[in-house]
NADPH:quinone oxidoreductase (Simplicispira suum), 324 residues
Amino acid sequence: MHAWLCTEPTGVDALKWTELPTPVPGPGEVLIKIEAASLNFPDLLIVQNKYQMKPALPFVPGSEYAGVVEAVGPDVTHLSPGQRVACLSGTGGFGTHTLAPAALCMPLPKGFPPVDAAAFIMIYATSWHALIDRAMLQAGETVLVLGAAGGVGTAAIQIAKAMGAKVLAAASTDEKCALCQSLGADATINYTTQDLRDAIKQATGGKGPDVIYDPVGGEFTEPAFRSIAWRGRYLVVGFASGPIPSLPLNLPLLKGASLVGVFWGEFAKREPKANAAMMATLADWYAQGRIKPVIDRTMPMAELPAAFERMGSRAVQGKLVLVN
């Protein structure tokens, strides 16, 4: 097998395409032949030693992937060789093969292409957990999605629309705003050329959004929160812009608003039955055509450094997927 090996987490340039022995699955593990793996923001942070999870060196990055089970560990009974699965295990995806915890593998129904499967779990699980579980979104409410043309942003638009909400999508270019409209956004804001607070006020008739979905952080957090509706819920999803913002705590008081943390990975560990039910519903929604990952492009696995460069330039719309 071959894989992109990280021996020192000093950045993308330190990754090397390396031939490695094909591993044998142990208890609770499966060997997966990887067909596709998607790029997520934590994949960049982890090779820069900036992510909360710091795997032992050396390691193969790549948190999310899909492929075919080639072998199973001695105590694995719910998966079998030849079965197609998707997995989000945190590492291991940027290669030709990987060992994955069987408990984290999502069996794929027929007609679920590997490229879509590799781009599915993180964005839809995060967005469902955020909007439905944490924000308790109701039909008719207004959702503001920041970073709306990214992976989790596009998923959030689709889930919010499926729930009957009105969606206000904010992104950094007119092209990205057009993508959001094609996914069903009712209105868009280009926060590079428009004042965010003024645009929110105009789009919501002065009321403000009931729910704000924020995977971006940075400079937009405070003006967005200042625009939230009475009893609004502000979802802290991530910090793709880099800086972790500070927020004056008088703002939640004045708006009677809630600041809500979203950590899907921990939810999946602590509440596995609820997570499994959620994933089953999401798979049904995909089969029904209610949700579908937006694929920016596919690139060969050997072009991982170029893929990271494209993601780092903020050029990606939806998800970028590497294929073997």
